[in-house]
Protein 1
Amino acid sequence: MSAVAVDVRGVSRVFAGGGVGAVTALDDVDLTVAAGEFVSLIGPSGCGKSTLLRLVADLDAPTSGTIEVFGRSPEQARLAHDYGIAFQQAGLLPWRTVRANVELPLALHGTGKVARRARAEEMLALVGLTDFADHFPDQLSGGMQQRVAIARALAEEPSLLLMDEPFGALDEMTRERLQNELVRICAETRAAVVFVTHSIPEAVFLSDRVVVMSPRPGRIRTVVDVGLGRAAGREDGVREDTAYFAAVTAVREALRGGALVPARGVDVP
Ligand SMILES: Nc1ncnc2c1ncn2[C@@H]1O[C@H](COP(=O)(O)OP(=O)(O)OP(=O)(O)O)[C@@H](O)[C@H]1O
């Protein structure tokens, strides 16, 4: 499999305005995410973070430019189940048990009953919800529902996870706990992650690199190399490190408006 998980080249997305003027959501964006790498997208509201993620997920198409996911088109990657998706609303089916929610993508893609049951058990153990397999989503807390959504996204062993503010609605303590779990899960599965967030500390703690976007039209302003060692396997104590605070400051300053740095040529580790 390609060593590059996501390759975005010269991508623009212009939405026709429907009488109120066209909106350039993304303008000439280049981004490369290596296999196994954790990259966060951060930037002011409306700068095109979700649009970029949706393009990678084949939920939308660029106006110009190209996107490859493990060397294939986003559509081919979707059909090959190369990636899993977890968005802010957990998106669980309320009439299905936790286990049945996790099994759903496997069932849709024809995995047999025994194999998908085994896989769901494995994923629920990974996110610490074995005891809640027979519960229904509305019997779980918001954080637990998020963990189910992550288990579901991981069920097909994707090499890439696309996450759009998955922890946005959670309290700070739950959020930090889920961040720790996500780091552990990434270390175990070696999945690459593209993660949209509004939280600078969250982006820094989770990521190998933080991509800072400029206000509309969305461009990549700069890419901050977090410099805390590999993101996968990072310990909670990193949050106390001087290097962690330095990276938080670097991202904050970039958000406040440094010079635009072209993303082309960003290194793939
Ligand atoms: N389907 C659409 N039709 C028209 N305009 C759209 C559509 N989707 C997004 N946009 C516009 O594109 C721009 C970028 O939106 P996007 O949702 O990608 O931003 P974002 O950075 O994810 O914002 P937020 O942080 O608030 O979630 C916005 O101006 C938005 O109004």
Note: The domain at 1-82+158-269 is CATH 3.40.50.300 (Rossmann fold).
Protein 2
Amino acid sequence: MNMETGNPIIQTKGLTLHYGEFEALKGIDMDILSQEITAFIGPSGCGKSTFLKTLNRMQDLVPGVRIDGEVTFHGKDIFAKDVDVTWLRKKIGMVFQKANPFPMSIYDNIAYGPRLHSHIKKAQMDEIVENALRGAALWDEVKDRLKKSALGLSGGQQQRLCIARAMAVEPEVILMDEPTSALDPASTMKIEELMTHLKKKYTVIIVTHNMQQAARISDKCAFFLVGELVEMGPTDRVFSTPKDKRTEDYITGRFG
Ligand SMILES: Nc1ncnc2c1ncn2[C@@H]1O[C@H](COP(=O)(O)OP(=O)(O)OP(=O)(O)O)[C@@H](O)[C@H]1O
């Protein structure tokens, strides 16, 4: 496995997805490079979330979905028969738009995933929990209330807890579907700061409606329109000199 920065960790070729008769993704070719932040932008309904969820096979859960084309993770077809989907989702974790902590303690939220995957002694679990919470910049705020319910945290804290929970099973990639859209500006800033730290260790893919956010945090930016990948490139370049008129219209606010 190649873990060097700048190598494709996920690649799609001709990825097409149908919900019944409806073609939601139209032959997407994309390379996601490791230890970068890639942002997906585009108007509502253009397929960003669909594409994101296809990358760790979350779409398997949706009835009537048909997927054609190829998705590889470290060069291996994620749809191959011998791929364990639980393993894939451990390697490619996900954080949702709305923070969804489990109705249990802060500690148990983090310990939940590691417990599923292996038998871990208490002292080691304490360390996993602390590291994950530190990694998500939440430790100092919760270290004295680890046994309290996660549902008592603020929205921004809950979202950082979900990021910590995703990190606790040691993924390589973290998918984030509009992770800050339900948060206030201060919490949003915390999560953005956190993401720039995360990319030292993980590959991050984020769907965002916030163009300033994409410009601030991402290395690469992909613009989607009605199921098509219109263009993708270094974020500075996409924002300063978009190659496609449709990208330009979107980022200058002419539509969407
Ligand atoms: N489970 C589903 N069944 C049928 N159609 C769906 C399903 N999920 C999404 N779609 C359709 O697929 C298209 C792409 O949806 P998707 O949620 O991927 O877009 P999006 O770009 O992420 O939108 P948004 O920014 O509003 O979240 C939309 O037309 C949507 O209505």
Note: The chain has one domain: 8-251.
